Amino acid sequence: ATKILLSFGWTAETVGAQLFMMGNMASAIGMPIDELAKIMGKIKAVGKLTGETLNQLQERGVPVLAMLAAHLGITEAAVQSMISQGAISFNMLQQAMWETAGVGGEMSTAMAEQSQALIGLWSTLKDNLLELGMLIASGFANDLKYALRVMIHIVKKLKDWIKVNAVMIKQMVV
């Protein structure tokens, strides 16, 4: 999700907080955070919430209309009308999401709660094992690269030798 957010223009300074909010939202509704990041990136790129991106969020269980209605102090029908007029900016949606899934919002503890469930613990273990593997591999990455280059060279030479000696090899096997 970090790479997705960065590709849509979030900065290294803001991506951590954004991941916190989106992670809570995704955890609360059972949506992969990458999907939420892609949809939010599209909304950010366009600058406003469209009917298409509203549908994408609603199909995944994001309570967009309720969040915006609460944030703006209007009805969900009024929010729907504003969306159809192109009047819900990315910033308005972002603020409504922060009020719901940011610090103090009703979804603000969803990631922490999920991390203690079996699936969350399993996910945390996998993430930590991946980080451990990357840490170990980074210590001898240059050695691995060299070994791979040597192996590629040997395989190419073996392939060339087999092409040249195919008749002899066939006679030996038969």
Please give a handful of descriptors for the protein shown:
0% strand, 174 residues, single chain, mainly alpha
Overall description:
The protein is mostly helical and 174 residues long. It contains 11 helices and no strands. Helix 2 packs across helix 7. The longest helix has 24 residues. The protein is elongated and about 85 Å long.
Report the sheet-strand fraction.
Answer: under 5%
Average pLDDT score:
87
Q: Return Rg in Å.
A: 26 Å
Q: What is the helix tally?
A: 11
The structural class is mainly alpha
The helix fraction, in percent, is over 70%
Compressed to H and E, one letter per element, the order equals HHHHHHHHHHH
Task: List the topology elements.
Blueprint: H1 2-7, H2 12-29, H3 33-46, H4 51-59, H5 64-72, H6 76-84, H7 90-101, H8 110-115, H9 118-139, H10 141-164, H11 166-173
Helix pairs in contact: 2-7, 5-6, 5-7
Q: Could you provide a short overview of the structure?
A:
This protein is mainly alpha-helical and 174 residues long.
